[in-house]
Write a structure and sequence with these properties.
It is built from one helix and six strands; from the N terminus they run βββαβββ. By secondary structure, the protein is mainly β. Strand 4 and strand 5 form a beta hairpin.
Length: about 90
Amino acid sequence: MRIKCPNCGERDRREFYYVGNAIALQRPTVDAGAEAWDDYLHNRDNPAGRTRDLWCHEGGCGAWLVVERDTVTHEIHDVQLAEKVAR
């Protein structure tokens, strides 16, 4: 898989560090209980199809990127600097 960094151009996926879903997780309150904290820390969705993920160009410019990709076909649909993506 190749990712087109907005700063460096197209690079091999091994230059990037996958962080996870680009949609922020909702941290439970301190008193939420063990089940809520266990879910927050250990459980993640694993969708088949289009996702928006957060990646870091660790082996390059160090930019944080939001990558829209298909987890089934590995096709990259869009790459944007995270700082320019609306929350």
